[in-house]
Input
Amino acid sequence: MTRSTSAARPAATGSRRRIRGLDAEQRSAQRRSQLLDAATELFAEQGFSGTSIEQICQRAYVGTKGFYDHFDSKEACYIALLEQVTAQIQQRVADVAAGAADATWPHRVEAIVRAFVHAITDDPRLGKVTFGEAGGISPAVERQRRSNRRWAAGFLDQQWSEGNATNRDEQRGRLALALATIGGVFELVTDWLHQDNTADSASTLIEDLTRFITVVHAGRRTSREPRTLLPRA
Output
């Protein structure tokens, strides 16, 4: 009797679909992760403009076809990387803020700033990629940067606000001040990254950012206090 091979086919098909214990979807996710890791290294080492897709593929041990399976262009790869790193930073800062919700403002702002600084300096590549390379790449990247700044401004407003805005003008004014403050924070970070810094100098950055935000907050509170007109002589 001739043995039918039909029963063996599903197993054979299944074995072809799994390579080194990973199915096709898992292998695709692994290749994407490898590409983003390689892009992080290369963008930090030689900048966005100095890095080619071929170099990213070589560093990641992924073929060019594999790159285009995930990203339409080098710009798209960078935006995906920026989104990934930003999400990690936002989550880390939000977790610390939630844990320090009952702390006084001086302790809370210091804890939040410390979490933010360590999120971009514990792995020096992340600070370089997110702050040192993001400017001037393309309009699409600039839109992503603006979105990140607006998130940070809204987050800051939540941290230092004494309550909800009573009208639209107050809300607009608060967010404008928070956005300007975030712009100053990001500029201090960028300037720090372009200096000869070390891991130990991160403490200096924490002090500078904390001082800056504290001064702005103090001025904001002062501007909200009722003013008494001096009597005329």
Summary: The radius of gyration is 25 Å.
